[in-house]
Amino acid sequence: MEVAETAPVGALLREWRNRRRLSQLELSLRAEVSARHLSFVETGRSRPGREMILRLGECLDVPLRERNRLLLAAGYAPAYAERTLDDADMGPVREVVRRLLAGHDPYPAVVIDRDWTLVDANAGAALLLEGVAPDLLAPPVNVLRVGLHPRGMAPAIANLGQWRAHLLHRLRLQVDWTGDADLAALYRELVGYPGGDPGEPSGTPPIAVPLRLHRDGTELSFLSTVATFGTPLDVTVSELAIESFFPADAATARLLGAGRPAE
């Protein structure tokens, strides 16, 4: 992992502290260091040790990739490996993903990385991609672009305004939390896509935002869940997410041939 140019580690730590909206005193109490020492670290008057950086990174909930960058900025080696999914050591991770995807059929499920790039999908995910322009499905596939692009899923989404607002909100929170410039650029791109007004809910308020999809003259309705690995120590694993779509009504469950959803 190489970084050509980077800010001093103290400035980076101050940026993360400000992003988390913590005062120096609040962070010093969490990390069990003096506020004076933390001030010296942030201003560059004191060089933090490796353990200090890791402790502050944990207290600030800095993503593992960015914790490595903090270490590099201070002249230390990265603490967290970044293996590919094809790596031999990633066998247990591949098995977990495979079981989750296969077990969710016939309902759609996809695996994405931190950039919303499609990593894997089950057979049921093909239902979501019907009618999407081939160029949008050429690797690397960005699932948000596929979902909201006028030549992607957007024309088939019955509640496009509502679903678009939901996805943009998720991405905006991710940008705010990570400070990732690439995600910020993706957000600016997606905001420019047409999508309509989310509108005001009518009738009984929904329990969650559904994905309502026109397919073969009928409407399918899904609720989604997102699963991540709970205790990652590898950068790649920490950035994986599995989004699973479940029938939001009995009609969708019947149409997909799996009976009525659990109540």
UniProtKB/TrEMBL annotation:
Domain of life: Bacteria
CDD domains tied to this protein: HTH_XRE
Gene3D superfamilies on file: 3.30.450.180, lambda repressor-like DNA-binding domains
Domain HTH cro/C1-type residues, every copy: 13-67
SMART domains: HTH_XRE
Matching Pfam families: HTH_3, MLTR_LBD
Alphabetized SUPFAM superfamilies for the sequence: lambda repressor-like DNA-binding domains
InterPro entries: Cro/C1-type_HTH (IPR001387), Lambda_DNA-bd_dom_sf (IPR010982), MLTR_LBD (IPR041413)
Protein name: Helix-turn-helix transcriptional regulator
Organism of this sequence: Nocardiopsis lambiniae
